[in-house]
Amino acid sequence: MSDIEINSILTETRLFEPPANFTANARLKMAELETLHQQADSDYEGFWAQQANALLDWHTPFSKTLDDSNAPHYQWFNDGTMNVSYNCIDRHLATQAAKTAIIFEGENGDTRHISYQQLHDEVCAFANALKAQGIKKGDRVVIYMPMVAEAVIAMQACARIGAIHSVVFGGFSAESLRDRIEDAGAVMLITADGGTRGGKIVELKQAADKALSKGCSSIQHVIVLKRSGHDIAMQAGRDIWWHDAIADQPSSCEPEWVNAEHPLFLLYTSGSTGKPKGIQHASAGYLLNAMTTNLWVFDLQDNDIFWCTADVGWITGHTYVAYGPLAAGATVVMYEGSPMVPDGGRFWKMCEQHKVSIFYTAPTAIRALMKLGDDLPAAYDLSSLRLLGTVGEPINPEAWMWYHRVIGRQRCPIVDTWWQTETGAIVISPVPGVTATKPGSCTLPLPGMDVAVVNEAGDPITRANTGGYLVIKKPWPSMVRTVWNDNQRYIDTYYAKFGGKYYLAGDSARCDEDGYFWIMGRIDDVLNVSGHRLGTMEVESALVANDAVVEAAVVGRPDELKGEAIVAFVICKGERPAGEAASAMVQALRNWVGEQIGAIAKPDEIRFADGLPKTRSGKIMRRLLRDIAANKAITSDTSTLENEHVVAQLQGKV
Ligand code: WTA
User: Fold this and answer.
1) What percent of the chain is predicted at pLDDT more than 90?
2) What's the DSSP call for residue 374?
3) Is the CB of 419 under 6 A from ligand 1?
4) In a designed cystine with 184, which of 20, 30, 140, 507 is the match (CB 3.0 to 4.6 A)?
5) Mean pLDDT score of the chain, rounded to an integer?
6) Whole-structure pTM value
7) CA-to-CA distance for 457 and 473, rounded, in angstroms?
8) 563 Cβ below 6 A of ligand 1
């Protein structure tokens, strides 16, 4: 891809220095940050060893920091043993057993405060319940739950006994759930009768039953949390209620001391094929960077109330809800429902009510709430807020400025954090008490993160504002360890491009004259819809699985609210659908994709034609499709097209 080296024309020049009173109380000031960078630069392994010793409690200490003898399979701290749940909970009990660990609020307004002691007791009881159901170290457990405290309890309980969890976002369909269960070879599924979102019940158990009705032969038991309380079917011998499972279980459970490299979890994410990849993370390295970033980027302090709005079904909900803040002994807020219930002031109301001091959300949510105007946030007392964050997609300067002005009231630094499911934790981000921010830039790599923008040959691009491949040059503790069941895909996706030298992030980026990073977008066929990754191939495979469809191509179109919208070009069997038949087909295919993958994957627009624009060698001209989807003038050369007449059809002209 030689056209990646493009000169960027974005000229954002505003610079926001960290507010002096923020800096005065910040964990990291200029001098401390510089020391960390210097340590990492002069003795990389020593730096991480020091962090791992300072921030994690070890059952047996490690003697070797990084083993790179089997690169790109890197091992961190591997002869040390520890337990993630112990580090998130038990070690805080001596000093802060009564401190609130989780503030939960349901969409209906029910709230629950769970102290570290209660969290300990509930995690232990549930861990014992898992053991009673036969779950052992290394077993895979799939968690398909609403955004309730029990989801975190289930994750922590798995970690406690060395079981490997794989959380599947509750918005994914039965089909997606089945694929993930099968790929992971899970022996247990933990779900709920239903969750509540947007005033409606999300039928989780029903979807789980559908998933398990075909295949999924590895599943032995299903634990079901009663949440919505509506009627559901329970299958005798297979299904057990959560409350029954824990009924007689003691509230203590010796942690399973695992090696640092023991797999902590799998999380499936989209790539450039039709099949999502099971990103596998390890225990100690993951938790270490979950902690370092919570301290460095979110400046977590004793009395902070930290609200990361991400669902636990995504990596952000793992690292900045379920693990990192707890390892740092903080209080986190969890919210079950939609930001629009009862109105678009819900987030701000909750910030006021729970005295949230650190708020972390996605640009897509900011844009949606920005559209509703300034009055809703103005109605609430947001003076408890001291730090704001964003993640998941590039934030446009307009949304950044609104966040800064209307939510942060010009007092709060904004951390625009770049990272991925694969990186496990934040890699590039401002350090809020130190880094001057520029709207739209994630600024600079954190200490110990060796990030660069390189050209096709793998050489660093030194010219400012010239785009290239974003790579990470050295392994880091929380990096992906492999793709579950498909190690070759791990090597091919992340390490093949530059001969095993660098981790390839899959994003393009540029650095400006100050060395600040600006993320430009994906270089592969991955869309970013409302901050969620979706492979175009996944949506295409879902479409062609429908009997009416012969062929399909899916591309992204820039969208003001969602970042990218999904546009599908579809070739149907028989006549090209027109008029009412076309509308009916669009509806049917949107629902179909919703069933195959989940509502987030439903195409925003579907266009029909007699064929797809292909080169004479049979390659779909995706660039052309992207131009058509965006209703742009066509710049590609269409003279080599096998079937030029379909272009007008796809443009909706004939
Ligand atoms: C994108 C989410 C611009 C990027 C934590 C990355 C971003 C993908 C940012 C990972 C950001 C994430 N600015 N783009 N601050 N953060 N991205 O795995 O394309 O769901 O590769 O992890 O989101 O998405 P994932």
Assistant:
1) 90
2) S
3) yes
4) 140
5) 95
6) 0.94
7) 14
8) no
